[in-house]
């Protein structure tokens, strides 16, 4: 997560996604808008013009500009009042022509002045949406992130254990690749992580012996998924006599792994010659979905055994 955000950061980020122009006030473009901003504080960062409890980014639509002009005529209040210490930037929306007076004041007060053709409400909704992504906590993990049976599944394990080969087999079985090697996970809610692929790695997968493969070109558009919520981690580990003895025959190896303070179920899957890992991953995902829906086969098996023993007595 960014420790702080500046008008320059915000402009460059928004410029990629929405219509916005920088008209004046570039002298303090690297001044921090807000440090350590939490997701639930975004509503105070941007909003319609407010002279009593000003937002850090003041949005001026047609109604707000009409109000300012009226205020200026009736009480001789200066337009410079909106350039307060709290104001990090001013945005004229609705395609309005920005008056020369405002451009001059923005340069004098060293306050960034933007202009957008979007309606003010749409602009505020858009900027809050992009801020939530820009300011969200992010982490890059090593593994292959896939959509399996409709669920986001991260396949992890030591190097050369066969993660990419397993992912390739899952793709041939109709599942979809999101990111190979370095998926990015973003905390978008209290208990929700969204995984996506870095731009430079999109559509590509490295498989030892084959090199880099273009999965989209080889298997088609349906073999690729842009993002997915993380629901399950499958950790591959080599089967040894030691970990074979430690396996719980009833419940398997299930635990909780915490990522960005979000709990995620992790299943350790032993890797050994002759095991069909793709089938096992599919089964693990199906079983995880059943458990989340309240159906636990292990618990039901134990209950059935107890009932059988009671009936036998």
UniProtKB/TrEMBL annotation:
It comes from the Bacteria. The active site is at residues 142, 163, 181, 249. Its cofactor is Mg(2+). One of its GO terms (biological process) is regulation of carbohydrate metabolic process. Residues 270-275 are annotated as: Important for the catalytic mechanism of dephosphorylation. Residues 16-131 form the HPr(Ser) kinase/phosphorylase N-terminal domain. GO terms for molecular function: ATP binding; magnesium ion binding; phosphorelay sensor kinase activity; protein serine/threonine kinase activity; protein serine/threonine/tyrosine kinase activity. Catalyzes the ATP- as well as the pyrophosphate-dependent phosphorylation of a specific serine residue in HPr, a phosphocarrier protein of the phosphoenolpyruvate-dependent sugar phosphotransferase system (PTS). HprK/P also catalyzes the pyrophosphate-producing, inorganic phosphate-dependent dephosphorylation (phosphorolysis) of seryl-phosphorylated HPr (P-Ser-HPr). Homohexamer. Belongs to the HPrK/P family. This is HPr kinase/phosphorylase. It comes from endosymbiont of Galathealinum brachiosum.
